Amino acid sequence: MPIVHIEAKPDHLLRLARQKDPVGAVAEMIWNALDAEACHVRVELEVNELNGVESVSITDDGHGMPNASCTSYFSGLGGSWKTTAKVSPNLKRGLHGRSGQGRLRAFALGEQVRWITVAHAADGRTERTVITGAVDRPADFEISEPERVEIPCGTRVEVSVPANFVGRLSHEDTAQQLTSTFAPFLAANPDVRIIYHGTQLDPATVWTEIAEYVLPWPDAADQAPPLLRVIEWRKNVGRVLALCDANGVVLDEPSPGIQAPGYHFTAYLLWDGFVERRGNLPLAELDEITDLLESAREKLRIHFRRRDQERRERLIQDWISEGVYPYTGEPVLPAQAVERQMFDEVATTIARRLPGVTQSKKTTLRLLKEIIAHDPGGLYPVLDELFRLPQSEQEALKRILQRTSLSEVIKATSQVSDRLDFLAALKKLVFEPAISRTVKERAELHKILERETWIFGDAYALMVSDQSLDAVLARHLKELGRRPEDGRLNPVRREDGRTGIVDLLLGRAHRGNAGREHLVVELKAPNVKVGQVEVAQIKSYAEAIVSDPQFRDARVSWDFWVVSTELEKTVRRDASAPNRPPGCIAEWEGGVRLWARTWSEIIDDCEDRLHFYRDRLNHDPATEHAMEYLRRVHTSVTPEATATP
């Protein structure tokens, strides 16, 4: 029996065999059969009781290999006849193989390989040839003498003494993986049947979606334009962008190069122009068709954005039918639409992590809605803690939450709505007789306002609440970065020697320089009119600060407010003096001003600042909304008179 020898090192030949990829080896054997114009290909596994693969055989009804050609087929490395032939001789099929190395892939299946091939000889008679090879001598193949037979043409590859990784062939998803490889060819050639371990490869049984897109391409003027066929699978078969001829023969497989979390797909770019360029396809990213590949990838991105939107819409409809969706009706206001858009994207992203029990799912979605409505920035840590999301879903979720236009708009609109609700609640606290006469200034109103200091001006920050003038001095010096020379502060006293207790000290820095403004607010219960006694109190605070050298700093201006529902006549006259701003009752040297303010003036100022947003939001806070906000945000200090009856 003659032996043909490949002039190459054995280790190089075994690298070409890619022994860790038995599934790819089976695919290569099937492609060889299809290149030989087979219409029926059968892959059979001999499996033992432990589901281990003992042997593999691949049988086809192609035209086989004539004995006279076997020496050239098996002795060379490269230079396959398929390199120059664009199509098969009789059926004119596009050819997959071209490197002349496919036979070596059989060593990924086992250590002993035998090809039994039947073909027509040059004289027209039918002959059988047997070729054998072994992994311990990968460069040598024994070729038998031809044997005259009267049986149909075809080839059978028998592989025994299984290789290390051949057990992968018996995995449940192997047939589906092979189906994805041959799907476009099988779709274009319905007369071809491939049977794998008793299962016919039929793309229609395993795909969930198929879509096709024609890609305009100027180089396709004299042939059909490139066609992108996208097939989605039920299970993960490995993402591939396969470059094929128009009949679906795969010529190369570059990376898909797109993100599509949650989808298992194979994309086939079918174009006969690839046949002419198949020698350069591994470098396709660098040659003249790189723009075609990028066009295909962009179409894939558009496809999966559409599919993602369809999937989200189906999920939401399912939740509505199930009664767990936390919204009713359509959004009326722009802010509601933005909030719901973000909810829908986040909720459908984590849908697979939601509880299966209806009530638990409803509760989880309701919690998600509340977080998005009031604190979208804090959503990610909560979801990560609840669901321990896998990396792909973490990245998808972060992309959603990083959309500033969504999360910041929701946060801003929620803040504006909350502020409008608070102003409505404040009106009830200070103006409604049944409530205002019972509101306690220090225990209730003061505690509420120290968390809502924005009503005195958005730029102010709370520095001191309900503390002495000594604490005011300490905080004042801290803001200026000053320390007393001896490290000790002298006590600050009013003219009568008493220690003043300041309700609120607020501060803000001037933009662009080192100057600061300090605002001292003295709150009075709503049923107390601001008269000379109340004015004298803030004057005594102002005098104590102005007179104490420890406070002196030209960079700081001071405002002192006394606030209640009404002003006595004399105080009102001082607050309406024509040579001062409205509400200002005195101005002292050194940037010190004293004010008598009413709640109606302060609330009007706030509503003026918010009116633009209120109009855009069309938000008119009802009483129940205002009280609900008060109970939700200020639970511990909400006056009893505001409780739900």
How is this structure best described in words?
This protein is an alpha+beta fold and 645 residues long. The protein has 4 domains: 10-200, Histidine kinase-like ATPase, C-terminal domain (Heat Shock Protein 90), CATH 3.30.565.10; 206-309, no CATH class; 324-403, no CATH class; 420-634, Restriction Endonuclease, CATH 3.40.91. The protein is 38% helix and 22% strand. It has 19 helices and 21 strands. The strands form 3 sheets. Strands 1, 2, 3, 4, 5, 6, 7, 8, 9 and 10 form a 10-stranded mixed sheet that branches. Strands 16-17-18-19-21-20 form a 6-stranded mixed sheet. A hairpin with a 6-residue loop joins β17 and β18. The chain is elongated and about 130 Å long.
Specify the helix fraction band.
25-40%
DSSP strand content:
15-25%
Q: Mean pLDDT across all residues, rounded?
A: 83
Number of helical stretches of at least 4 residues:
19
Concise account of the structure shown:
With 645 residues, this protein is of the alpha+beta class. It contains 19 helices and 21 strands. It folds into 4 domains: 10-200, Heat Shock Protein 90, CATH 3.30.565.10; 206-309, no CATH class; 324-403, no CATH class; 420-634, Restriction Endonuclease.
